[in-house]
């Protein structure tokens, strides 16, 4: 993306990281007790674990949560010194909402059905 799209790049990178974290396989700490290091699912000698595949609904929920978090933080930044950061967070939220409201979203599908 172009340098002028810093807000979009920031929002997308953070959201991709959140999606990546949601796909991570949880590690049960209790199951690791008493396990030899070479047999542990994490640490030295471990291999890549299978990732959790997110459903479309889970992805949408994560993107919505990321947008909501940005709007919530922007609303808390009321001091004039934070106006620029609050505006950037609102812009990032708008970028994420565009992905949610884009082609194939529930709103577009519903309007397409009523046009038929």
What radius of gyration results from the CA coordinates?
20 Å
What is the element string, with H for helices and E for strands? Answer: HHHHH
Provide the β-strand percentage band.
under 5%
List the total number of helices: 5
The major beta sheet can be summarized as: none
What is the helix fraction of residues, given as a range? 55-70%
N-end to C-end Cα span: 37 Å
What is the molecular shape?
extended
Structural class: mainly alpha
Number of strands: 0
Low-confidence stretches: 106-116
Round the mean pLDDT to the nearest integer and report it.
78
Give the helices and strands, then pairings.
Layout: H1 6-23, H2 29-32, H3 56-76, H4 83-101, H5 106-115
Which key phrases capture this entry?
116 residues; mainly alpha; 5 helices; 62% helix; extended; disordered C terminus
Description:
By secondary structure, the chain is mostly helical. Helix content is about 60%, strand content about 0%. The chain is built from five helices and no strands. It has helices at about 5-25, 30, 55-75, 85-100, 105-115. Helix 1 (about 5-25) packs across helix 3 (about 55-75), helix 1 (about 5-25) crosses helix 4 (about 85-100) and helix 3 (about 55-75) runs antiparallel to helix 4 (about 85-100). It is extended, with a radius of gyration of 20 Å.
């Amino acid at each position: 993306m172009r340098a002028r799209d810093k807000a979009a790049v920031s929002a997308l990178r953070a959201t991709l990281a959140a999606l990546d974290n949601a796909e991570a396989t949880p590690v049960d700490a209790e199951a690791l007790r008493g396990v030899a290091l070479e047999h542990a699912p994490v640490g030295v000698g471990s291999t890549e674990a299978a990732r959790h595949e997110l459903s479309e609904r889970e992805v949408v929920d994560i993107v919505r949560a990321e947008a909501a978090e940005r709007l919530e933080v922007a609303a808390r930044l009321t001091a004039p010194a934070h106006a620029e950061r609050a505006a950037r967070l609102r812009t990032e939220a708008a970028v994420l909402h565009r992905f949610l409201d884009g082609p194939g979203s529930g709103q577009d599908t519903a309007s397409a059905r009523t046009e038929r």
